[in-house]
Amino acid sequence: MTRRRDIDAVRNLSGDIWNVAVDEHQGGFLKRRDLLRYAALLGLTGFAASQGLGGARAAAAGGGTVRVGLGQPTKAIDPVSVTDPASIGVISQVGEYLILDDPKDGLQPKLALSWEANETASRWTFKLRQGVKFHDGRAVTAKDVVASFERLVDPASGSSALSAYKGILSKGGAKLVDDETVAFDLDGPNSNFPFYVSSDVYNAVILPADYAGDFEKTFNGTGPFKLESFRPKQGASFVRNENYWGDKALPDRIEIKFFDDEQAQVLALQAGQLDVIPSTTRLELAIEGNPNFKLLSVQASSHDQVHLRTDQAPFTDKRIRRALALTIDREAVVKGLLKGRAIVGNDTPFAPIFPSADPSVPQRKQDIAEAKRLLGEAGVPNGFEVTLTTERAYDIPDYAVIIQNFAKKAGIDVKLKVLPQDAYYGSATFGSSPWLDSVLGITDYGHRGTPDIFLNATLKSSGAWNAAHFNNPAYDALLLDYSKARDLQAQRLVARKIQTLLLDETPAIISYFSQYSRIVSSKVEGVRFTAISHLLLDRVSFVQA
């Protein structure tokens, strides 16, 4: 905790809202890390820097080529429409955001130097960093920033960020104030808006105003590396950007190879052909105990959400939804399936890493007797049969089997329908997507730095990802209250109401929040990544033998 004599020095930096956070920190309710994150959210980047964050890093020996294995991109790599982890990893080498959501230190200035909100948090103003150039030599101006966000919120652009911005930012909301300043007039108050222009919305890469959708031709961004060569379906290589606005990258080159099979990645790593690969539970077993490799992890809000379609039998009755949730032994799932690299969830998107989450809400635990009682009360004492539809990806098929086995204990007969990932998502629109149309399903959701996107997109009545078809006016009203709350105490009061409502209604089961990991050769140091697939390699150096 910040020492008492330091408290007065950090008070009054940003009025009453900041002082509430300081009081919570002083009272032991807010960790130092979360205080720093909250400072960044309010735009107090100077305070974060004074605590040793966001400043220049010490010089380190560089050179060499970092070799990376990634999965196969699912389509042409375009920041506007990208969704897959491999493409995000590639874009990370060349593209940048207004703000980086660092897994350790929270929101950190990148192309934006500072940001602040008006009194109602309905308008946010960002000051831009000067001297930044695209790889083609053109200076980055506010016009490029405005065009980048107008493109993302345009329904005609093919933007994958529309689901994140729905109800938050609409076309015409990004406005040029001057060459160094951009303002965002929101659809309504939102105290967490800086997360929406950060790396958490991975499509929000700043591109030239005249971007024509041809990213693979030049990979023209502002990042620490620039394109050397790109080979569709094979890989890409990047070289140090000598004109980068910040500290120059340490490695000379980044070499990325695409793989169709994850096992081939770990074999290439073991053969010394790669330095960094993604991680899964199965791959971790292959390198366990081997001193030549290390597993790097960051805690995340990533989760596999089980949706229960509230508008179709048998899940129109919330007692039946609660009964299924009560069959799951969450601790066993974390220890067994996830090898302890996760945090137990409580059937709401409020991961424990979110400062606004209320930890006093009782944790749901396995209770087979209560599950059977609820089934009897709902008129199905002998259980029922239901099909669980999901994707063949990551650990999800194994999780589906675990759910199936737990459900049997209460007499619920779960049939499994596991589809290829692209078939499961379909067109990602209601009426033509097993993801959004199935009665019971499991969907993987990547990390976000704030619960807002999960709360709005997956459970709001009008949410673009509302696979549960949950329609609850009380819940929708609470979301508005949460977005208006300006300090952590106010947010936590609303969060408790949301958490309590979702436990009662149970439109979704969230039994864990996963860590995000990478497997790295012991010969390299300085590999950083976010929990949403960004791969940051500019500080990588090689260990001398």
From TrEMBL:
Record's subcellular location: Periplasm
Gene Ontology molecular function, alphabetical: peptide transmembrane transporter activity
SUPFAM superfamilies the UniProt entry points to: Periplasmic binding protein-like II
GO biological process, one term: peptide transport
Entry GO terms, CC: ATP-binding cassette (ABC) transporter complex; outer membrane-bounded periplasmic space
Solute-binding protein family domain residues: 107-425
Main location: periplasm
Alphabetic keyword roster: Signal, Transport
Pfam families assigned: SBP_bac_5
Domain of life, per lineage: Bacteria
InterPro entries, per database record: Peptide/Ni-bd, SBP_5, SBP_5_dom, TAT_signal
Family membership: Belongs to the bacterial solute-binding protein 5 family.
Alphabetized PANTHER family for the sequence: PERIPLASMIC BINDING COMPONENT OF ABC TRANSPORTER (PTHR30290), PERIPLASMIC OLIGOPEPTIDE-BINDING PROTEIN-RELATED (PTHR30290:SF10)
Entry protein name: Extracellular solute-binding protein family 5
Gene source species: Mesorhizobium ciceri biovar biserrulae (strain HAMBI 2942 / LMG 23838 / WSM1271)
